[in-house]
Amino acid sequence: MAIVFIPPLLRERAGGLRQIELEGATVGALIDSFEARFPGVRARLVEGSRMMPGLGVVVDGEVQPDGLRAAVTQASEVHFVHAVRGGCPP
Amino acid sequence: MSDQTAFKVIGTRPVRHDGVDKVTGRALYGADVRMNGQIYGAMLRSPHAHARILSIDTSFAEALPGVKSVVTGADLPAMADKIADTGEGAVNLRHLSSNILAGSTALYWGHAIAAVAATTQTIADQAAALIRVEYEVLPPILDLAAAMAPDAAALHADVVTNELGEKGKAPSNVAEHFRHEKGDVAAGFAAAEVVIEREYKTGTVHQGYIEPHSATVQWNADGQLIVYCSTQGSFGVRSEISEILGLPISHIKVIPTEIGGGFGGKLNVYLEPVAALLSRKAGGRAVKITMSRIDVLAATGPTSASIIKVKYGATRDGRLTAAQVWMAYEAGAFPGSPVGAGSGVILAPYDIPNVVIDGYDVLCNKPKSNAYRAPGGTNAAYAAESALDELARALNMGPIEIRLKNAAKEGTRRADGPVFPRIGFVETLEAVMRHPHYTSALERSSGPLRRGRGIASGFWFNFGGTSSASATVNPDGTVSLTEGSTDIGGSRTSIAMQFAESLGIPVDQVKPQVVDTDSVGYNDATGGSRTTFATGWVVYEIGQKIRTELIARAAKMLETEPGQVSFENGVFSNGAMKNIPYAQVTADLDKTGGPIVVSHSMRTRGEGTAFATHIVDVEVDIETGKVDILRYTATQDVGHAIHPSYVEGQIQGGVAQGIGWALNEEYIYDKNGKLLNAGFLDYRMPTTLDLPMIDAVLVEVPNPKHPYGVRGVGEVPIVPPAGAIANAIFDATGVRMMELPMSPARNLAALEAAAIAAAV
Asked: What beta strand segments (E) does B141-286 contain?
């Protein structure tokens, strides 16, 4: 299962966990699994069909322009990070 | 990654392809554009930093002979609170639109209120002055403390604090709060034997590009919009115009001119939609608007003033055990400061087990901030590197020693979570240690002139992004290379060099040009130090495809199979049997299958991060507070340098800007929020007279993800200078400067305060 690092401001909603192992083949699927465990987290991470504006996703050290559609593996490490404006990545 | 030892083009220093046009004055910049029937635009700007707009009377302006059109914010399509990605990250379109022409409220001195187009610039200026605006002046909020005060009036009734999707209940000037956390910071400080805690301030600073913004726009009768402008990203301009004016992107062609600097400040639109509306109202005549220097400073996007608190804990042997950071950045009139980037920069060079970083994006009555070369990084590194210098002194450690002891390496986890891939930070420290600047003692002077040496390090993310390009093989063997990446720092040549290397031809046979948005596939803006990395990678792929195709054509001519043909030194060879020169193959393309045209697009990844370490010697006149830079050396992990002169130029340019930020540059407002130094006489940027030769040391740690090992190089050199200079001033005077810029007046005040404190 992929390891998802939980952003500090979301940890209260996620039972105080810092990271969690989740099933899913994409970032979106991981968030769905996360929501199933901790209802309400999806609304903090996703707006409509995309990542919340200003929020980026990093999988295995690389910024994912595909956002929710980005592929993950069973061994992936996933971070939700503050997006950086100005032609620059999270 | 390709074999680094076999390069024929990469690593050389050819003359830039655009050089002749630029040195002979033939290059066309934004203000040089002339269209048939062109008329001229002028903006009316707010004389108040904060005011409700009660009414706008344009009748006198419209009645002036020669005036062809007048527009106000009411002419812009009503914008919902829509978040759009225009290629430069998420943008609130209503805010973007309101920044171009104010809606019901003027939010900073210089905020555009209305615009006029007339047959001459003089008439346009006169007409703008005839527009009558009735204001209800409101108290301005001009600094972070006032903006964040619990009882502060909110600039926007609809902005609440966003904490990772959790929205505040009441309007607030704190548009966003975020946190990074790693380890257990309380336990880390409990384990510390020495703790340093300090607070720093920085002022509002402009990019200072020499070319003002200029846009010439024609709204044709068929609904097509032709836009000439000076921009870092023509596709971003197209997207923003499309969103603001509600036009399909297929109706908009953006033609980028040469650009006289941008540094992040020319990523968003200011004039283009206004010129478009004026053109439409003027019956489709082309409208040209060019900013004055006052307009540029007052009403484009400077970078944020900030307050940054840093607390370090360490054991006696110099190992960092914990760090805590609180950082608030001014966003200006609309949300979106670079505090997020600053939070990623601030502790990045160090492997610290326990970290908490809190960041705040704060509204105030100043122009909306925009990106500036490693956005948010210089402020952050100034604070972090100053505090680290104090910590090292408290521990009796050298500046390199403490950095080496705690240096981030491959595998180090960043405060915001991800793990560093192969990085070259340690190598930059080692390069400093080997450099004669470091190994030679600084001659200490006596009397009022005090000399000191400072060291600081810095980090920048870099970006990959999307690039597209196209290449056509000409019969004479040259290749026309079309790109969509604005060339700011010589990227036409650095990209052409990668193409030439990939195909196997001399770089002077490549003819690169930057074309309009209808003539090449999508490109992200030139920003994030991405262009040589990403567009270079795209043309590498194109070069490989063309090489393969040319080998196939040569095989036909040699009457053999492609697998039997090699291409080396301009000759296709079928073993020792037959040879055929490159020029003959390209001359006969029409006989072997027709023209060769190859296009390629990529959404690149693996950009690799950048680190730098700088060392500076200063001389402080303690009677005047003036600081002279005596010697400056910048070491940087540059990946593999494609054109070393351009890399050195990027480093020298970044350092020069960092020195200006450190010593002199800041916006000065009066109590009413009027900008008092909106010109280069009073907004003091460094000139060649202020700067020594900056020694750029290229530390080449190739990026393993790029075919030629490229890392972005353009931004990180502006990150360390302020911290390095602050540390050098302390070394010279024993006085720690807690605020940027470290101008003569501020230095003198600090020196006098220190003298008084010492005497008590």
From this structure: 160-163, 166-171, 174-182, 194-202, 214-219, 225-229, 252-256
Integer distance in angstroms from the first to the last C-alpha of chain A? 24
Q: Do A61 and B419 touch (CB under 8 A)?
A: yes
CB-CB neighbors (< 8 A) of A45 in chain B: 164-165
Q: Do A8 and B370 touch (CB under 8 A)?
A: no
Report the complex ipTM: 0.95
DSSP track, A14-63: TTT-SEEEE--SBHHHHHHHHHHHSTTSHHHHEETTEEPTTEEEEETTEE
For domain B4-27+463-604, give the CATH number: 3.30.365.10
Q: Which residues in chain B have Cβ-Cβ distances shorter than 8 Å to A88? A: 341, 371, 375, 461-463, 527-528
Q: Give the closest-approach CA distance of A64 to chain B in angstroms.
A: 8
Chain B's closest residue to A61, CA to CA, is B418
Long-range contacts: B246-252, Cβ < 8 Å, 24+? B246/B77, B247/B223, B251/B223, B251/B224, B251/B225, B252/B224, B252/B225, B252/B227, B252/B517
Cα–Cα nearest to B722, from B734, B714, B711, B730: B730
Q: Residue B180: its chain A contacts at CB < 8 A?
A: 8, 82
Options 3.30.300.30, 3.10.20.30, 3.40.50.2300, 3.40.50.720; CATH for A2-82 is: 3.10.20.30
pLDDT of residue A84: 73
Q: Is A47 on the interface with B (CB under 8 A)?
A: yes
Beta carbons of B416 and A82 less than 8 Å apart? yes
Query: A55, B418: Cβ pair inside 8 Å?
Result: no
* Interface with A, mutate which of B88, B360, B416 (most A CBs under 10 A): B416
> CB of A16 within 8 Å of any CB in chain B?
no
Report which of B346, B366, B348, B263 is spatially closest to residue B305, judged by C-alpha positions. Answer: B366
- Tokens 């005497």 belong to B759
A77 interfacial to chain B (CB closer than 8 Å): yes
Do B340 and A83 form a contact (C-beta atoms < 8 A)? Answer: yes
Residue among A8, A43, A89 minimizing CB distance to B528: A89
Contact between A77 and B419 using a beta-carbon 8 Å cutoff: yes
Nearest CA in chain A to B166: A44
Residues 6+ apart with CB under 8 A from B114: B43, B44, B56, B58, B61, B70, B71, B72, B73, B101, B128, B131, B133
Burial label for B440, CB within 10 Å (0-12, 13-18, 19+), is exposed
Extents of the domains making up chain B: 4-27+463-604
Please, what are the averages of pLDDT over each run of 10 residues along chain B (760 residues)?
Answer: 76 95 95 97 98 98 98 92 65 90 97 98 98 98 96 96 95 97 97 98 97 98 97 96 96 98 95 98 98 98 97 98 98 95 97 98 97 96 98 98 98 95 95 98 89 98 94 98 94 97 98 98 94 97 98 96 95 86 97 97 93 98 97 97 97 98 98 97 95 97 95 97 98 97 98 92
Are A87 and B267 a contacting pair at CB < 8 A? yes
Which tokens hold the place of A68?
A: 């929710």
Task: Please report the pLDDT score of residue B432 as a whole number.
Answer: 98
For residue A43, the chain B residues in CB contact (below 8 A) are 165
Give CA–CA dist B732/B56, Å, rounded. Answer: 56
Cα B94 from Cα B336, distance rounded (Å): 13
